[in-house]
Structure formats: structure tokens, C-alpha cells
């Protein structure tokens, strides 16, 4: 079984093995990664942080868990420019630094092991966590509580003040959606660090893990362009053209397609 097949198999379990699946993504980029070994290392972290948790009902332990992780050194990676290791879960566990989504996936695995109810929230620009039924969200980078006003402020900082907070920003994320978002993050990080072949693996995985947007096809088309694969680039540009409703983007895509060599005729 290939690392990608193992990753997808983790999603078929009930419940899905999210953290292990993320480790298989890391193994797809680095053959030396042994998910079973990393899972053992995570158990040691779980033992460490569980000793510092207060004697409270498990429904009240999510924020203390995040604070304990922060005290143990797990922080948002502030390195600029950000590198792929901020989203590769084996590196995040090793360095104790990562993107919010990577820290959230790690926290969710620890919460599962400690029977602490916790779920991911697909908030744009900064992944968040939530105790089911709670009136607030939690920042995976330290455990700060975020109420609606805080979410609106975070959204305006990430994007623009004119973007209103809506219910779709607070939807619970499935394991599959989290892995797709993780793959998008890795695609961007590998591409910005000039590793187009690694970014292409991530771009392909994005398309396997759920509904793809025009931006997803356009991102892979750009990678194919950089790798001098015009027929594959054409395939993705045509799919992006079918998916976009933006008239300006449609014009740009049409123009870009006109500069590519004609499609190779198939042989029958």
C-alpha cells in the first residue's frame, strides 16, 4: 500500500484516523517517516500534558489541554517565509511549531485519546476548534476563547472589514475536509519554496479529497506550466474555466489557453 492509499484508508475507518492520515501525507513526501513510530511519540506528549490537566469534567478540559500544549512549547510557527515543515505533522510534533490547522489536528488526536470532546471548525484563514455545543470557539494556538465579536475581528484581519461573519464560517470540519485543507496548505508551501514536484503531489491529493474549486485546478495548472507539461496544464485550465463564474477570470483563462499548443489527438 502506498502512503497515499494508506492516507485514504485512514479516512474509511470509523471514526476516521485523522492524525495518522496526516502522517501518511508526510510519508508521501519523506519515505523515512514511520507513522507508527510518530504515533508512539505522540503518546509520550499525551502523558506529559495529561499530568498537568486540572480535575474537571472532560467537557471542560479542551481549553486547559490547549494551554498545557502551549506551556509545553507547541506554538504557531512564525518563521518567514513559512516552510512546509509548518504543515507536516511529524515535523510539527518534533519542532513543536506549526500552522493553526496542523496544531489543531495534533490537539484533536490528543483530545480523542483523553476522551475530551472537541471538533474542528473550518474558519477561513485561521483554523479553529470548538467544544460541541459551546458558545465560543478556541484558537489552537494557545487556547484563547473567541466569541462572535472576536471571530469578526479575526475575519477582518485575515481578509477585509467588509467581509461579514456568516454561519458557513463556523461549520464543523470533517476529517476529509481537514486533510484537503492541509493539502492546500502544503501545496502552497511547497510551491513557494520552489519544490514544484512536491507541490504537485499535494495538488493531486486536493482533488482526490473532495470537491475541487476553480482555484484548485488553476493552482495545479500553474505547477504544470512551471514543469513544462502543456497538455496537463490545458486539462486543468479547461476545468477551471468550467468551474469559475468570474467573467474576468474566464477571459484570462481563455487567453491563457489560446497560447498553449493544441491538444494532442487521441489514437483509436
Automatic annotation (TrEMBL):
It comes from the Bacteria. Residues 37-183 form the Protein SirB1 N-terminal domain. InterPro entries: SirB1_N (IPR032698). Transmembrane segments: none annotated. PANTHER family: F-BOX ONLY PROTEIN 21, SI:DKEY-261L7.2. Belongs to the UPF0162 family. This is Tetratricopeptide repeat protein.
Amino acid at each position: 500500500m502506498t502512503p497515499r492509499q494508506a492516507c485514504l484508508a485512514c479516512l474509511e475507518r470509523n471514526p476516521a484516523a485523522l492524525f495518522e492520515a496526516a502522517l501518511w501525507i508526510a510519508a508521501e513526501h519523506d519515505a523515512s517517516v514511520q507513522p507508527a513510530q510518530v504515533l508512539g511519540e505522540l503518546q509520550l506528549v499525551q502523558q506529559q500534558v495529561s499530568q498537568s490537566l486540572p480535575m474537571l469534567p472532560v467537557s471542560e478540559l479542551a481549553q486547559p489541554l490547549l494551554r498545557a500544549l502551549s506551556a509545553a512549547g507547541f506554538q504557531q510557527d512564525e518563521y518567514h517565509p513559512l516552510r512546509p515543515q509548518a504543515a507536516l505533522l511529524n515535523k510539527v510534533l518534533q519542532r513543536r511549531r506549526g500552522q493553526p490547522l496542523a496544531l489543531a489536528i495534533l490537539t484533536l488526536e490528543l483530545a480523542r485519546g483523553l476522551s475530551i470532546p472537541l471538533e474542528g471548525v473550518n474558519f477561513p484563514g485561521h483554523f479553529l476548534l470548538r467544544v460541541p455545543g459551546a458558545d465560543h470557539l478556541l484558537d489552537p494556538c494557545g487556547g484563547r476563547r473567541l466569541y462572535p465579536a472576536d471571530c469578526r475581528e479575526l475575519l477582518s484581519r485575515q481578509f477585509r472589514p467588509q467581509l461579514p461573519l456568516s454561519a458557513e464560517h463556523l461549520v464543523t470540519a470533517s476529517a476529509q475536509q481537514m486533510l484537503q485543507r492541509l493539502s492546500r496548505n502544503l501545496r502552497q508551501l511547497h510551491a513557494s519554496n520552489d519544490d514544484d514536484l512536491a507541490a504537485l503531489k499535494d495538488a493531486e491529493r486536493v482533488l482526490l479529497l473532495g470537491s475541487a474549486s476553480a482555484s484548485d485546478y488553476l493552482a495545479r495548472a500553474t505547477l504544470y506550466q512551471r514543469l513544462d507539461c502543456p497538455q496537463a496544464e490545458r486539462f486543468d485550465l479547461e476545468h477551471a474555466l468550467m468551474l469559475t463564474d468570474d467573467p474576468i477570470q474566464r477571459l484570462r483563462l481563455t487567453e491563457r489557453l489560446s497560447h498553449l499548443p493544441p491538444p494532442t489527438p487521441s489514437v483509436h
